[in-house]
């Protein structure tokens, strides 16, 4: 695993080998994916201090680079909460990267329109819908996230297929029987990104470990921790819970600003390397 001082430049310049996907983690639920063909996608980009502006809770570290430097083909939102749909960041990304498309549930797209994003750059993504965005294939799946921070009634998780590799970002969701059913029905997930903070209608580390066992991916990356002192968790407790559940899935705990290079297995479930 490699940590970059200039993450925006690394995203732009990294050459991804065939059969690989580069996964950058920028904190909270914010990931950037890059395929071997150069396709780039951001999921739930969170850059600003908008949470502090609204409720007085300050982020523990600044964004690794300004939002205006996020040059990606598409931005995907899982739901319309400000640490996932960051209105300040959306305005800056839309203005600085005219080619970027914005994909998400209806509530997010309505918000994007209010923030000045043109209709032709917006792609609706609702639960159980599968869409193509450039070279990527996206499938929106069930998530349940009714929280005191405001209901996210059209929240989704998203399965991204890029270069033959399938990554499942759950978004914010509780662990319940319906989510368990969804996870058990998903096929051949390479990488699972799952929240562990446990507050405000989001899975805790044990829930996340149980859900990882349901999904049975090759690799699991914990997320949604370390951003706010008032709402965080220890990722190594998740690693312990995962071990206790005997899930047989490899956990990868990422540093903010790092890249994980997932290698498509040639044969066997765990035939992969990382850096």
Draw up the topology in text:
Elements lengths: L1 E2 L3 H7 L6 E6 L5 E5 L4 E4 L6 H6 L18 E3 L10 H10 L4 E4 L1 H9 L7 E3 L5 E4 L2 E7 L3 E2 L2 E2 L4 E7 L2 E5 L7 H9 L5 E5 L9 H11 L3 E5 L11 H10 L5 E2 L6 E6 L12
Parallel strand pairs: 4-5, 5-6, 6-7, 13-14, 14-15, 15-16
Antiparallel strand pairs: 1-17, 2-3, 2-17, 3-4, 8-9, 9-12, 10-11, 12-13
Helix pairs in contact: 5-6, 6-7
Low-confidence stretches: 268-275
**Mean pLDDT score:** 93
The CATH topology is Metallo-beta-lactamase, Chain A
- The CATH level-2 architecture is identified as 4-Layer Sandwich
Distance between the termini: 4 Å
Report the count of strand segments.
17
Structural class computed from helices and strand pairing: alpha/beta
Strand content: 25-35%
The shape, in one word, is globular
> Total helix count?
7
Please identify which CATH superfamily we are dealing with.
Ribonuclease Z/Hydroxyacylglutathione hydrolase-like
Question: What's the SSE pattern?
Answer: EHEEEHEHEHEEEEEEEHEHEHEE
Query: According to CATH, what is the class?
Result: Alpha Beta
Strand order of the largest sheet: 1-17-2-3-4-5-6-7
Largest sheet entry: 8 strands, mixed
The domain count comes to 1
Q: Nearest-angstrom radius of gyration?
A: 17 Å
Portion in helices: 10-25%
